[in-house]
Amino acid sequence: MPVNAHTQKSSIQGLAGQIEMALDLPAETSKGVVVIAHPHPLFGGTMDNKVVQTLARAFTQCGWTAVRFNFRGVGSSAGTHDNGLGELDDLLAVVRHAAPGGRLALAGFSFGAFVTANAFAQLHAEREVDALVLVGVAASRFSVAPIPAEAHAKTLVIHGEQDDTVPLSAALDWARPQILPVTVVPGVGHFFHGQLPLLKSLVVRHLG
Known about the structure:
The chain is α/β, with parallel strands linked by helices. It has one domain: Alpha/Beta hydrolase fold, catalytic domain (Rossmann fold, 3-Layer(aba) Sandwich), CATH 3.40.50. Helix content is about 30%, strand content about 20%. It has helices spanning about 50-60, 85-100, 110-125, 170-175, 195-205; strands at about 10-15, 15-25, 35, 65-70, 105-110, 130-135, 155-160, 185. The chain has an eight-stranded mixed beta sheet, sandwiched between helices. β7, α4 and β8 form a beta-alpha-beta unit. It is globular. About 45% of the residues are buried.
């Protein structure tokens, strides 16, 4: 299901072969590009995941061009799952193609938030990243890179209180040494069922 009437499908060449992408355009002139990463490929995660689409809607509402893509081995993307290492290469390839210059933001959900945090750690030293949004970051399952202190103000971390895929305690254990704030949505599980409008509004508010 397209995010809006302006969705464009395309593909680029990555290290493992073709990477399938979807481009969601804002109604007005774009202020920059956000690259959004999806949940775990081995558990049904794709670029059409509802949380990923909600993130795209939030960014396009705020004037950003939203780029979703399928990690290797998902949909029409070539290759096989690589536990985050190859997926990091996929994300960086999409960034290089879709946002070689200009304003850049990154967002991810679950496994995608883990890959996004690691991509931010690498990109932060190379170029300005205007905004970072991490939802349900998979801190209980993967080694998630810390967010540099100077980037905390531009970072939004959102987690459901009753997340049974990635316990809130794991997200807090990751955030605590960094003193990185986490926005907790009470009573909500991993996939934000019934609360996607609230998730969208939190991102829109962060983007200002």
